[in-house]
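Problem 12. The chain below contains 111 residues. Write out its predicted structure in token notation.
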Amino acid sequence: MRHVIGGVLVLVVALMALVPASGQNNTSERREWGVAVSVAWEQGSLLVTRGDGYMLLHVQDSTEVRDAAGARLNLADIRAGQRVEYQAEEWKGMWFAQSLSVAQTVSASDR
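Solution.
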């Protein structure tokens, strides 16, 4: 019984270390757009190119993904070449998508 309680305590402390303390602001937000380059839906990531380079977005199951008409999509529905508007939050050097809106395929002249 002591080993179980000790294991649970270690787990709780480890999880608390991952969550930033309240009042501590380790995040920044960004609302931008880019063109999808690669979609790894199995890993929950989307690589987009923008005018200033590339951005890797981590897309969680709870992230709202919609098309231009507002219909709900899955990450697997996004294809390379589509314009993606996103709102993302940075946490510890990684960008997590809060929402994604997918437009039609972008022509080469629009990139």
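Discussion. The helical segments are 2-18. Students who got a different answer should revisit the alignment rule from Section 12.3.
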